[in-house]
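Data deposition worksheet. Section B asks for the primary sequence of the deposited chain exactly as it was used as input, without tags or linkers unless they were present during the calculation. Section C holds the resulting structure in token form. Section D is free text for depositor observations; keep each observation to a single sentence. Incomplete worksheets are returned to the depositor.
Section A, Depositor: J.P.
Section B:
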Amino acid sequence: MYRTDRAAAICATVTSAMWGDHMAVVETERHGQILVVRMNRPERLNALNQEMRTRLAETWSAFRHDDSLDVAIFTGTGRGFCAGEDMKESLQRGVPGGQRPAIEDPFMSGALEKPVIAAVNGYAMGGGFMLVERTDLRVAVREAVFEVSEAKRWLLGGYNHGHVANLPYPIAMEMALGFRFTAERFYEIGFLNRLVEADQLIPSTLAMAEHLLTLPPASRVNTVHMMRQMRPAPGPEMQGLAAALREHGAKSDLMESRAAFAEKRAPNFKGWDNPEDCYRLPTLDTVKS
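Section C:
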């Protein structure tokens, strides 16, 4: 099947799934060679439930294989860009964390060759922050708020995000421990490209996308690919230590944090099943052995 035919088949699936009897949780609109992808669960601050994850995977697959589209803009509807994990869905499933879609999401897997620009219209929390982090260029409204939420929901905070962003240690530590950041502060430390008023968010990102379209196609794709390869990433040893730390503590706290959030109460954390484990942290040496 030719790429355009494959894209058409995927688009047909996306359209069929999105435009049923209920409002689409992912909306798209074309501006010539530019595709605007808009998360659309404003009543839940665009939290990532299973349906939205699947629709996003389908949309990014269609975008990837459509030869008439070259740049994407990623945004949300309402007050939030994306609030991350849908806590209510996790509690209903009885399992922490979002459920991955059955099909590949090329945006999340890194297979997507085309550039993506974030248009951050509001809260970008947890998994929503991670969506912004995966984009190549970032524009935000001045009212946007960012948070790496892993320290609040898991047994290890988001240790790698500040490292990936090339930020100094104390700022990376602040991110990893779940502090919130204003858009202005993120702009000052270089995480965002532009700060704009709300009515200029889409016009500003469209202008950036139009600039990308003035570049030779191979130059645009090759440069984005090269820049992505140069981003820092934790090495295998650090990833092994992180994996051990994710298991080091009372797993009951994972669901307790989500229940407390949903019930709007203070959490009652256990910490460790064995209190002595507080003093027996995994190390690089113990993980290697």
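Section D:
The CA atoms of residues 14 and 58 lie 6 Å apart.
The chain is about 45% helix and 15% strand.
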